[in-house]
Write a structure and sequence with these properties.
This protein is α+β, with helices and mostly antiparallel strands and 169 residues long. Helix content is 30%, strand content 31%. It is globular, with a radius of gyration of 15 Å. It starts with a strand and ends with a strand.
Length: 169
């Protein structure tokens, strides 16, 4: 199956928010504290889109995933308790969510492959991300996809596990 990726538009907001609402409910059902404090919300996604950071993954014409991508723009990462693998430019991804009707199809792997291609297209060989200590699904994905644990970063007063993958070029 071929998937396409494109920048999100404000017209996509309803579909994106539906996917994120489902992901928020899944985190809660899994016993995770991640995304249980009113974040993310439609305003955060609208801001991603307005700044050109929001991306959607499509199957045919249907949005089946969302992420926000930023280049070397995550102030919380400067204060890591630990050490990043590199100090070079990096792509950071946030708010990865896959449509709940499409779970179990390996779509997160396709999303991360797109993120790697995005980084390479921009001449960047480092990808950084973080997740809650209790988001077992994302922790498994990081391990499976070759991300290395680097330490902890803090968002809204909470510690998050920080990971980096250096892309071989």
């Amino acid at each position: 199956m071929e998937y396409t990726f494109r920048k999100a538009t404000i017209a996509d907001l309803g579909q994106i928010w539906s996917i994120l609402e489902d992901a928020i409910a899944r985190r809660k059902a899994d016993g995770s504290e991640q995304w249980q404090d009113g974040y993310p919300n439609p305003s955060v996604i609208a801001n991603d889109i307005a700044l050109g950071h929001g991306f959607v993954m499509l199957e045919d014409d249907t949005i089946i995933g969302y992420t926000a991508l930023l280049i070397s723009n995550e102030p919380a990462y400067a204060a890591i308790e630990g050490k990043w693998l590199t100090d070079d430019e990096f792509v950071v991804f946030h708010r990865v969510a896959i449509d709940g009707k499409n779970l179990g199809r390996g779509l997160a792997k396709h999303m991360l492959a797109f993120i790697e291609q995005y980084a390479l297209k921009h001449g960047i060989y480092s990808i950084k991300a973080d997740t809650n200590f209790d988001n077992q699904a994302m922790l498994r994905i990081f391990e499976r996809e070759g991300y290395q644990y680097c330490g902890e970063v803090y968002f809204r007063g909470s510690a998050r596990q920080a990971f980096e993958k250096v892309i071989v070029h």
